């Protein structure tokens, strides 16, 4: 089968004709408040998408991630996979978006779930991250099928749970069930908001851990009879400032991570808890007159593809052992919570080159290849699914994600939909 020379122009025009449909679909998705935590409206958004895509000729699977982290009868983790088969067998292109959004937070001047259109922007929690990307992929696929009903291969669209909390009730669960096996799916595009002229090849690694310092409880009027765990944690924080943070700042990567500050190793102290109020968070009286015997911090360590996870962990362990050797009565425990290896798809991978060609055709510029500072669901497609031919590409500005008055630009979505449609034509009409 050879491509019609007018096919690109017809696809671009078809996407443009669906501009209003793209706006409406994005607004409809934003107005379903799929907040995570706790996991609201997951079934509702999957049912909405099932009805929409079913009318477009897709075969629908609604899949609950039973037994996954956070799945419960009160807040079940629902996912949808919609599949459309072409006229002949061939490769499968899969668009994966997460349907959950983070908490609203403070500082909004617009209805977070209103989907308001103003000045070419659609506002709302999840507009950028990533319901705009989900809507864009749906419009791109529907336009492609309308123009190219006799294509070769298959197209899948998924909307999955819990990416904002690790993806274990979404892509990780589906990958474990074989939905992202390389013999089933061949090209994956994740429409995360990383700018419409960028192709994201992967992400840095992450290690979360809890460090606990231990002391001895005593009366607060006689602290000399106890041992304050919070003071011990102060020594940990001091060592981090003096030694660990400078060490991490000296580590640099050849990965094209954006923004530039993320080209080094980083560590964030996610939280700190210690003392009686932490043990009884609903208590509203005065604090207890006690010396705290436990203090805990959560650390969020982001590491580079050049680093080994064992070395990443040993740097923290060695710091704690140094404190123990020098500080009387210092006792601690460290517990692993979560880890993900860095991943980066090769620039010459088929899906990378195809999307790059489409970006150049639509925007008359070569794409920038980047790596995300934080992880997203490519980690599960790579690690569990063993599928390397995967990228993140979609509309939206990454810096707007999780911010108040989050928005997605309508023209950015149209341009990205055109890129996706041209990529489909290139992948599913073999030369």
Structure report:
This protein has a 6-stranded mixed β-sheet with strand order 1-2-6-3-7-15. Strand 4 and strand 5 form a beta hairpin. It is 34% helix and 23% strand. It is elongated, with a radius of gyration of 24 Å. It folds into 2 domains: 284 residues, Zn peptidases (Aminopeptidase); 136 residues, 2-Layer Sandwich (Alpha-Beta Plaits). It has 431 residues and is an alpha/beta fold.
Number of E strands: 16
How far is it from the N-terminal to the C-terminal residue, by CA? 7 Å
Mean model confidence by pLDDT: 95
Secondary structural class: alpha/beta
Q: Rough shape?
A: elongated
As laid out across the biggest beta sheet, the strand order is 1-2-6-3-7-15
Task: Give the C-alpha Rg.
Answer: 24 Å
User: What percentage of the residues does DSSP assign to strands (E)?
Assistant: 15-25%
CATH architecture of the largest domain: 3-Layer(aba) Sandwich
CATH class of the largest domain: Alpha Beta
Number of helices: 11
User: How much helix is in the residues?
Assistant: 25-40%
Q: What about the largest sheet?
A: 6 strands, mixed
Along the chain, the helix and strand elements come as HHHEEEEEHEHEEEHEHEHEEHEHEEH
Number of domains: 2
CATH topology of the largest domain: Aminopeptidase
Runs with pLDDT <50, length 5+?
A: none
For CATH, the homologous superfamily of the largest domain is named as Zn peptidases
């Amino acid at each position: 089968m050879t491509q019609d020379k007018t096919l690109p122009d017809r696809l671009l025009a078809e996407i443009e004709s669906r501009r209003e449909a793209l706006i409406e679909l994005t607004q409809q998705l934003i107005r379903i408040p799929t907040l995570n935590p706790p996991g609201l409206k997951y079934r509702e958004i999957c049912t909405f998408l099932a009805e929409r895509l079913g009318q477009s000729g897709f075969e629908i699977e609604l899949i609950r991630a039973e037994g996954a982290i956070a799945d419960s009868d009160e807040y079940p983790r629902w996912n949808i996979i919609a599949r459309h088969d072409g006229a002949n067998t061939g490769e499968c292109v899969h668009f994966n978006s997460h349907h959950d959004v983070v908490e609203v937070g403070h500082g909004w001047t617009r209805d977070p779930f209103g989907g308001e259109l103003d000045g070419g922007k659609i506002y709302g929690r999840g507009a950028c991250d990533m319901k705009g990307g989900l809507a864009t992929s749906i419009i791109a696929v529907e336009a492609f099928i309308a123009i190219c009903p006799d294509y070769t291969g298959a197209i899948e669209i998924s909307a999955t749970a819990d990416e904002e909390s690790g993806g274990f009730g979404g892509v990780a669960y589906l990958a474990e069930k074989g939905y992202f096996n390389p013999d089933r799916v061949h090209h994956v595009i994740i429409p995360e908001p990383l700018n419409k002229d960028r192709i994201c090849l992967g992400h840095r690694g992450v290690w979360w851990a809890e460090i606990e310092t231990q002391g001895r409880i005593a009366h607060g009027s006689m602290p000399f009879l106890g041992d304050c765990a919070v003071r011990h944690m102060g020594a940990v924080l001091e060592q981090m400032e003096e030694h660990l943070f400078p060490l991490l700042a000296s580590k640099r990567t050849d990965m094209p991570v954006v923004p530039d500050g993320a080209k080094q190793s980083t560590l964030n102290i996610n939280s700190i808890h210690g003392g009686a109020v932490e043990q009884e968070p609903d208590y509203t009286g005065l604090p207890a007159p006690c010396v705290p015997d436990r203090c805990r911090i959560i650390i969020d360590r982001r590491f580079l593809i050049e680093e080994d996870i064992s070395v990443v962990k040993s740097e923290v362990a060695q710091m704690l052992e140094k404190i123990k050797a020098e500080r009387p009565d210092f006792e601690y425990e460290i517990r692993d919570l979560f880890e993900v290896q860095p991943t980066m798809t090769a620039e010459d991978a088929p899906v990378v080159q195809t999307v790059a060609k489409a970006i150049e055709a639509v925007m008359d510029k070569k794409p920038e290849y980047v790596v995300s500072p934080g992880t997203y669901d490519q980690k599960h497609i790579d690690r569990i699914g063993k599928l390397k031919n995967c990228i993140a590409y979609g509309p939206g500005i990454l810096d707007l994600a999780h911010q108040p008055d989050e928005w997605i630009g309508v023209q950015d979505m149209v341009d990205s939909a055109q890129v996706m449609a041209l990529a489909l034509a290139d992948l599913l009409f073999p030369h």
